[in-house]
Amino acid sequence: MDLFEHQAKELFARHGVAVPRGRVAWSPEEAAAVAAELGGTVAVKAQVQIGGRGKAGGIKLAGDPAEARAHAERIIGMDIRGHTVRRVLVEEASDIAAEYYVAILHDRASKGFLAMASAEGGVDIEEVAATRPEAIVKVPVNPLVGLRSYHVNQLVYGAGFDERARKGAAELLARLYDVLVAADCMLVEVNPLVLTGGGQVVALDGKVSLDDSALVRHPDLEALRDTSAVDPQEQAAKEKGLNYIKLDGYVGIIGNGAGLVMSTLDVVAQAGGKAANFLDVGGGASAETMADGLAVILSDSKVRGVLVNIFGGITRGDLVAQGILDALDRLGDKVQVPLVVRLDGTNAEEGRALLAGSPSDKVIPAATMLDAARKAVELANAKAGA
Amino acid sequence: MAILVDERTRLVVQGLTGREGRFHALRNRDYGTKVVAGVTPGKAGQDVEGIPVFNTVAGAVAETGANTSLIFVPARFAVDALYEAVDAGIGVVVLITENIPVLDMTRAYNYVKAKGAALVGPNCPGVISPGKASVGIIPGEITHAGPVGLVSRSGTLTYQVMYEMATAGVGQTTCVGIGGDPVVGSSFIDVLERFQDDPETEAVVMIGEIGGDDEERAARFIAEEMSKPVVAYIAGFEAPPGKRMGHAGAIISGSSGTAQAKAEALEAAGVRVGRNPTEAAELAVAAVKER
């Protein structure tokens, strides 16, 4: 889960990371009020979880509250690369003498942390990494040791930070590390980190990605989740405890195990189709889980056929078959598309026998995974032609 | 021979008295694994169908000579269980639990490594050496002994490939499910290294998926260090960027971690990559027959 800039900065501030004074505003009126409260020149910044908002016109300076209101009016509701702006951050404008980049993240490859710094802040860091990798200093940090002053020295001296910025940057890096550990972040990034004309070092932007597996111990952060952009089918699936991701195709997919489902999406594409979703019913799926899963898939009007691909290990084929039959009962006439079912593994024969006894003409058995993909795509395409 | 688990394995199950722990421990014993002990604090003196329960792993090791641990403890306590096993001198730990926070796992990984223990998982189906021992939740019924080593980030997808290999009449020395989390105890390279050194393993199948660069690193290792043939399968060509596809580690970040990049890196290292599980199994069979 990613935080918005204003949320990241609130988290930073709680751990002593210096940030400009400011507050989130959900309306032009509120933006004007925050600007009045802060006084002087303010920045009005679109809050979206995507880069490039400056170029898109999502960041504007305002000399007074009326101007802040006018900017907010234009920015709220704006579309930035597919993300609708619903709120702005209004904060005091900074007098920028130099811009830097710092970040600390979990590094999958080294299974530790990686701390990074660059004197080329304020620009797209991925581009710097691609064109001038030597401009980014990377320091691995063993998680059992933690970020120490020698790491910080390697960063601020190595990246060539201005002498006036070193002490402040070192202090800020130490606090940023506290944030990473205390809030279970996968990434904390400041771009730009600025040195002000007055010699202060401040986080002018903030990006935080949280570890989803750790949110159970941070209910305060979980509460910040933005649900406005969540797809209704994904929401319904989540409430049922299902692992569902909506895609843009027309063949509904249901399977057990993340790898097997990913593989099923691929074989459907190879057979000339396009998957409508990813749905993993997990290990030991019960009849009820299967029925819930099918109901979610069939609520997507783009779905013209469904492929059920189950390899029973802990999951029992007879329970899966019973789930399919229950779903057909429960959904009745709403089931207007063919269900191609491939069952193998534990109790698969019992499952197939159950399905064969069903009066429904919607269930079509398939012998192998590839055969199932071909059949599902063929039937879904035929449905489109009908 | 086999790797990680075999007839010398003496297994202690942490969380034996829980529903999952009990179910799978008994299945592992039925398969022929020597399940010598269970650990649940406060339940020492009890037994689960004859398997004695201890309060601590150290106690279980002292009494039964356990050398391998299987952890079925809920996420909140799983990392403690891992530290306990390693501190008690256990050499091989299989951690099934999912949803362990990355920070906890990153710290534990570095500790376990310093102690010299082998960790498989978390969020994994376990390890099985067909005909010798099963430690975890891989269904023994679908495995057959044979000359192929199998290593995978996925569970059911692995069963699918085993099943297709069985249809073609080729079995495995050992199957290792390394797990679907971003930080896992054994990477592809750790397991490939063991298969390269195992005299009975003639060829290796590796099953990867989107996210991270473990497959790309494995490709370099295969090109430089392995003499045995390796075939591969990668899942997730159709996965959209930025979405976690079930496994915590299965996510394309920006342009990195795609299935395409992994398949290309492996092919460049001389690895034959199947387009689907069936083709991967066929390639594995062909690799064995060619030797």
Give a structural overview.
The complex is a heterodimer of chains A (386) and B (291). Chain A has helices at residues 5-14, 28-38, 65-75, 125-131, 149-158, 163-182, 219-222, 232-239, 258-270, 287-298, 317-331, 348-356, 369-385; strands spanning 22-25, 42-46, 59-62, 79-80, 83-84, 88-92, 96-107, 112-118, 136-141, 185-196, 201-203, 207-210, 243-246, 251-255, 277-280, 305-312, 339-345, 363-365. With 386 residues, chain A is α+β, with helices and mostly antiparallel strands. Chain A has 3 domains: 1-20 and 95-229, ATP-grasp fold, B domain (D-amino Acid Aminotransferase, Chain A, domain 1, 2-Layer Sandwich), CATH 3.30.470.20; 21-93, ATP-grasp fold, A domain (Dna Ligase, domain 1), CATH 3.30.1490.20; 232-385, Succinyl-CoA synthetase domains (Rossmann fold). The radius of gyration of chain A is 26 Å and the shape is elongated. Chain B has helices spanning 19-31, 57-64, 75-87, 102-115, 156-167, 188-197, 214-225, 259-268, 277-290, and strands at residues 10-14, 34-39, 47-48, 51-54, 68-71, 92-95, 118-120, 126-129, 133-136, 145-152, 172-177, 203-209, 230-235, 272-274. Chain B is 36% helix and 23% strand. Classes of the chains: A alpha+beta (386), B alpha/beta (291). Chains A and B meet through helix 9 of A and helix 4 and helix 5 of B.
